[in-house]
Design brief:
It contains 14 helices and 23 strands. With about 400 residues, it is an alpha/beta fold. The protein folds into 2 domains: about 180 residues, 3-Layer(aba) Sandwich (Rossmann fold), CATH 3.40.50; about 200 residues, CoaB-like (Rossmann fold), CATH 3.40.50.10300. The chain has an 8-stranded mixed β-sheet, with helices on both faces. Strands 2-1-3-4-5 form a 5-stranded parallel β-sheet, sandwiched between helices. Helix 1 links the parallel strand 1 and strand 2. Helix 4 crosses helix 6. It binds cytidine-5'-triphosphate (CTP). Cytidine-5'-triphosphate binds next to helix 12 and strand 16. Cytidine-5'-triphosphate (CTP) binds next to helix 12 and strand 16.
Length: about 400
């Protein structure tokens, strides 16, 4: 039983999917976990606390004011739990958690969490797509929480859409995977590039692309979660800095190139998720270009950062990862890129899937294998990529950077 000995708080908020929490609690216990349930008031209107008391042998925490709690029950639970999973997590619960409220048993316990926090959202697809929900989810992820789902399926009112809670067995699988990952990247330094580059035409115009930077930022926050120290070389994006990362802001490809070339030898892993412009205007006009009858732009090639690191790498980085956006022959083209740029792993996306969404469908291409992954959130994909990175690192001795001399194994 792979959750043997793990202490898990299942937080339940008030949505119709609360009935599935019964199955989740059973599944976690079946895998060996010790479970304590906490419920919001609304949740108790969907499922009776007595059900969980019967299953776990312990009454759920439903009311912080109850007289039978000698101390501060939320502090004790937050300290006790190796993980807290809120399932279902409603729009309202996540909004309150994102803004730091702590006025019920679930929220106060979350606020005191020592271990990992997971949310399994469940709501109507329009509530999930709501701008406020998406902003709150982004804030929670930025603070280190893991979103499990939602998935596409039949919703409470019979409609089909993205908003259904992940199945209890899948949630339990995800928890197992997260526990197994632990801090497998502790002591490793990961350098990540993210976002687009902007190539200036004149003081007000530039050539750019639609990259949001979400993929690179997701890799950065998941690498941090897994214990790595992270340097994030970022083009212009609209995202908060992942907490704990050393963020280097750049604009154009040449600046990104310089920032990476100065730092790659200190990194165990380099992951190039940036959508670097292949070309830049030959000249940046010193003044705003006035309109005329037409305009001819002369473009020149930018340096290929990934290929340069691939060509110059010695001991470091031990693992070099690139991305590829292809319209045809995905795997073959990615493998060609792998060889040409001297990378160990290429994350290949079909160009038709676009750059800007929150999900991604990718094939992980290595010298002797290719794994096609289903569509998943960028954070889930980040972890899949880091799982491969971690496996590739296992083949290399652990090294520490010293300014004085060559790398020495620990
Ligand atoms: N890349 C880079 N520097 C560039 C262009 C790309 O470091 N000037 C990196 C990207 O960060 C990505 C990988 O190279 O990890 C693949 O980029 P892509 O544009 O798909 O590949 P190209 O080699 O430019 O091939 P092509 O344009 O022919 O598809």
């Amino acid at each position: 039983m792979s959750l043997q000995g793990k202490r898990i708080v299942v937080g339940i908020s008030g949505g119709i999917a609360a009935f599935k929490a019964v199955e989740l609690v059973r599944e976690l216990m079946r895998r060996g976990a010790e479970v304590q349930v906490a419920m919001t008031n609304a949740a108790t209107r969907f499922v009776g606390p007595i059900t969980f008391a019967g299953l776990t042998g312990k009454p759920p925490v439903t009311d912080l004011w109850a007289e039978d709690y000698a101390g501060e029950v939320h502090v004790e639970l937050g300290e006790w739990a190796d993980a807290i999973v809120v399932a279902p997590a409603t729009m309202n619960l996540m909004a309150r958690a994102a803004s730091g409220l702590a006025d019920d048993a679930v929220l106060a316990t979350l606020a005191c969490a020592r271990g990992d926090i997971f949310f399994a959202p469940a709501m109507h697809h329009r509530m999930w797509a709501h701008e406020a929900t998406q902003a709150n989810v982004a804030r929670l992820i930025e603070r280190g929480a893991v979103m499990l789902g939602p998935v596409t399926g039949t919703l409470a009112n019979g409609e089909i859409g993205l908003g259904r809670m992940m199945e209890p067995e899948d949630i339990a699988d995800e928890l197992e995977t997260q526990f197994a990952r632990g801090d497998d990247l502790a002591g490793r330094h990961v350098l990540i590039t993210a976002g687009p580059t902007h190539e200036d035409l004149d003081p007000v115009r530039f050539l750019g692309n639609r990259s949001t930077g979400k993929m690179g930022y997701a890799i950065a926050s998941q690498a941090l979660r897994r214990g790595a120290s992270v340097t994030l070389v970022s083009g212009p994006v609209n995202l908060p800095d992942p907490r704990g990362a050393d963020v280097v802001c750049v604009r154009a490809a040449r600046e990104m190139h310089e920032a990476v070339m100065q730092r790659f030898e200190e990194a165990d892993v380099v992951i190039m998720a940036a959508a670097v412009a292949d070309y830049r205007p030959e000249q940046r006009a010193p003044r705003k270009i006035k309109k005329g009858n037409g305009l001819q732009l002369e473009l020149v090639r930018n340096p290929d950062i990934l290929a340069d690191v691939g060509a110059k790498r010695g001991h470091r980085p031990a693992v070099l990862v690139g991305f590829a956006l292809e319209t045809e022959n995905l795997e073959q083209a990615a493998r060609h890129k792998l060889e040409r740029k001297g990378a160990d792993l290429i994350v290949a996306n079909a160009a038709s899937d676009g750059l800007a969404g929150d999900t991604n469908r990718a094939t992980l291409v290595e010298a002797s294998s290719a794994t096609s992954l289903p569509e998943m959130s960028k954070h889930a994909l980040a972890n899949q990529i880091l799982d491969r990175v971690s496996a590739l690192l296992q083949r290399q001795p652990r090294r520490t950077a010293t300014k004085a001399g060559p790398d020495a194994p620990n």
